[in-house]
Amino acid sequence: MIWDKRYEKEAYIFGKEPVEFLREQIDILPRGKALDLAMGEGRNAVFLAKQGFEVDGCDVSEVAVKKARELARENHVAIHAFVADLETYPLPKDTYDVIACFYYLQRDLVPQMKVALKPGGVIIYETYTIENWERGFEGPKKKEYLLQPNELLNLFKDLKIVYYRELVLDNKKAIASLIAKK
Fold first, then answer.
1. Which of 21, 93, 154, 176 has the highest local Cβ count within 10 Å?
2. What sequence ranges are listed for the domain Methyltransferase (predicted)?
3. Cβ of 75: how many Cβ atoms within 10 Å?
4. Domain total for the chain?
5. What's the CA gap between 107 and 152, in Å, rounded?
6. Residue 84: phi, psi to the nearest 5?
7. In a domain, 119, yes or no
């Protein structure tokens, strides 16, 4: 599998620190049970656990999940890290207070994310926009993995939008960030 090979190459491809948007917004997230979708090597899942969340984290790569478990041990926290192909894995209903998704886009997963969220729960999401490709920044090269303008906002329009932005960050990547409440 391509992701296993990629994760085997380096210590931690994306580092061990959480996404800046998650760190900035952590205080407004309701405490409880969190799910980190497509968690990679677990940097965000571990951060959530360090903040007191009970964390489930999944990724399609066995290598990434193993590294996430190691990172949790290194940080003296527990996470439930498991392998799941989000193309086929059914998310459990009304289970999570927070669902985090960073730099992964699977549009048909959005309805399941909403169902998996408890009433009053929050989705925190950040990923690349088409502008990232247009400017030639590092990131996905396939347009289907990139958001159109306001697309993330529209995907979650039936939830209460708490925060939304689209911007070019540090002249390195074009992103959309969202926090939405059920």
1. 176
2. 35-121
3. 16
4. 1
5. 9
6. -155, 135
7. yes
How far apart CA 143 and CA 129 sit, in angstroms, is 9
Q: Which amino acid is at 140?
A: P
Per-residue tokens: 98: 């927070």
- Enter the tokens of residue 17: 């620190």
138 in any annotated domain: yes
- Is residue 12, in this structure, part of any structural domain at all? no
38 φψ region: left (φ > 0), alpha (ψ -120 to 50), beta (else): left
Strands of the chain (E only): list them.
33-37, 54-59, 80-83, 96-102, 117-128, 160-169, 173-181
Backbone angles phi, psi at 150, to 5 degrees: 65, 10
Extended strands (E) in 9-116: 33-37, 54-59, 80-83, 96-102
Q: Specify the DSSP element, H or E, that contains 6.
A: helix 2-9
pTM: 0.95
